[in-house]
Amino acid sequence: MSEPLDQFERIRSEADPLRQAKLAGELIAIYQQRSVELARLRKEAINRAASERGISYSAIATELGLTRGRITQIRQTAPPAERAFFGVGPITVALPLREAAGRALPVISSEDARAAEQLTRLLTDLSFQVEQFRIPPDGSWQPRGDAVAICGPKSSPVTATAISGDPLLTFEPDISGNWTIRERDGSRVYESPMDGENERRWSDVAYVARLPLPASGQSLLVIAGVHALGSVGAVDYLSRNLPDLYHQVGTRPFSMVVGSDHDGETVTRSELLCPPRTHG
Questions:
Q1: Is the separation of the CB atoms in 235 and 118 below 8 Å?
Q2: Whole-angstrom Cα distance, residue 112 to residue 274?
Q3: Is the Cβ–Cβ distance between 60 and 48 less than 8 Å?
Q4: What are the CA-CA distances from residue 248 to residues 45, 94, 169 (Å)?
Q5: How far apart are CA 228 and CA 230, in angstroms?
Q6: First and final C-alpha spacing in the chain
Q7: Bigger pLDDT: 76 or 1?
Q8: Residue 32 CA to chain centroid, in angstroms?
């Protein structure tokens, strides 16, 4: 609790009015997101008291000094438990800028933009405040707070370093130069059908993981298709299966592989090729 209070006092004593206004706005966002998280925690605690201890909701209401109607309202309106999968918020969704031939300025691929749009919709539905960040073409950036990178190891050394610490999966090019996801024990390789020599299909695979960042000690959620289309499929899978995924991994480090089929940028199928497994 001391951290936000310290920030509060620093903002109160800030002499520069523009900086004070900026810092005040940032702290308001943090307070608002923590308030939402506290509402989620209260709802989950009430449900746990009922399911794990067998306490009636009427008795819980009495213990908390609330009415039974207020308990019902809390259980119906507070955010779902799986919101914690993404953190507390605010959340940064990071996309890589790419150099393009014939273009003076770097661009964002349409697939990455679509994945970010769908992810932002999911996060907003979970009562997160979301800000997009453009990873520069050289891939160097410093994630702050809760962040999701729709970015593979080829586009950013930050993502590459995080993935290198995955004890279960690797994401590297094979001898022909095609990027693949592999089990570290050598048991399986996940290749993109888009790289098939005989038949190229509108299908892709994607790496999804929550990984620690050695430099800062915080974690980063990585969504990385072998091709950008795979990221769209991975976000589709998260949107449809988040409660089950949260039940399996909670907020722990994990990794998994998602396969998806597409009609253009529209996902027609997304499913697990490698189930989520926690690290350590």
A1: yes
A2: 22
A3: no
A4: 19, 25, 18
A5: 5
A6: 29
A7: 76
A8: 19
Query: What are 180's two structure tokens?
Result: 């693949």
Q: Are 190 and 182 in contact (CB under 8 A)?
A: yes
> Residue 194 is encoded by which pair of tokens?
């888009």
CA 66 vs CA 48, 59, 155, 264: distances in Å: 17, 10, 52, 52
- Per-residue pLDDT reduced to its tens digit, 261-275: 999 878 999 999 999
* CA distance readout (Å), 164 to 63, 103, 139, 146, 222: 49, 32, 16, 20, 12
For residue 5, the tally of other CB atoms under 10 A from its CB is 9
Cis peptide before 90 (omega within 30 of 0): yes
Strands 146-150 and 219-225: parallel
> Measuring CA to CA, how many Å separate 1 from each of 4, 6, 237?
6, 9, 36
Look-up of token digits 């201890």: 53
Helix (H) or strand (E) holding 137: none
Cα–Cα distance measured from residue 97 to residue 86, given in angstroms and rounded to the nearest whole number: 23
Q: What is the pTM of this model?
A: 0.85
In the structure encoding, which two tokens stand for residue 241, read together?
């299966």
Buried b (16+ CB within 10 A) or exposed e, 51-82: eeeeeeeeebbeeeeeeeeebeebeeebbbbb
- The pLDDT-based confidence of 152 (bands split at 50, 70, 90) is very high
Q: CA-CA distances (angstroms) from residue 28 to 8, 33, 37, 89, 126?
A: 10, 9, 14, 12, 18
| Burial call 221-234: b when 16+ CB within 10 Å, e when fewer | bbbbbbbbbbbbbb
Spatial strand order of the sheet with 179-183 comes to 169-173, 179-183, 189-190
